[in-house]
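Anyone have tokens for AraC family transcriptional regulator? Sequence:
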Amino acid sequence: MILHILSESEGNIVLSDSEPTWLWEYKIPESRSITASGAFGDLLLQETPGNQYSVWYNNYLIKRGDRLTIIRNEPVYKLQFILNNSFNYYDPKVGNIPMYERGYNLLYTPVVQEKISFKDKAYSNLEIHFSPDYLAAFTPHFAHLADWLRKTERQVPARFCKINQVATGDMMRCLYDLLNSPYTGELRKMHYDALVRELLIMVLHQTATHPLRKIIRFTTKEVETLYEIKNFLLTNIDKPLKLEQIAKNHDVTLRTLKRRFFTLFGVKLYNFVLDIRMKQASMLLLETDTAIEHIATLTGYQSFANFSTAFKKYYGHPPKYFRSR
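Reply: yep, here.
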């Protein structure tokens, strides 16, 4: 696939298959890489080929706001998930089209020419590019997919869902497993085959039975506020968090904050805080010798008893079990 990327500020971006050391932390084993660096920042696009599909993990580390145009010279059927920060796609007919974190859609374009506006942030998405035959194998089970594939025969751009959908927790776990597969060689390919198939089935089932029908609308300020709160939670996990005070500090009610947080990120605010606390606790238990009582403090719990109760409810076992495994 021939790929061109244009920067609004710098013009044509020179692409390379070499990988600068500062991008190694994003590297996916056994993938092919395309990289670029400039005043705008750094790009790392990685392709893992499969049987009639390929998985693309794309990282945009933007140092200076810019609009990039990505051009591919052949038709693409792709299932796209937004992983980190919201992407703003530009359409000359309707202007900016935001696609929020955890958003997904299945898209067809006869020739890809995406215009994406970036701010000074780190962005990532994951795309699975399918052959038409791969998708066609699922049409006996999903009539809405068969209808959509017939529309793509006209060779005009087509969106599977009029409104971008929000990934479920199971979908996000599947994406995580794709990016963190522990296997190598043929077994890794088999693992990818299973995950891609599972992910596509989940998407087709959700869009057939419980599609999102209402457009999510936020102002730029509301989106920035939600990301600011999310980053605050991630970087202050060792502190007791008072959600009512956080909401008050951002001039919203707690009820409004909870509703907007769930709408944008697809996870309840309380569950998000619990998830990051429990993941941090399990990491400290398994990878360090830190006393369990101190781990409770490091994950924002003032009471060891409350930490132990929450941990057992979350994982099904008390903290000492994790330490003794």
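The chain has a mean pLDDT of 89.
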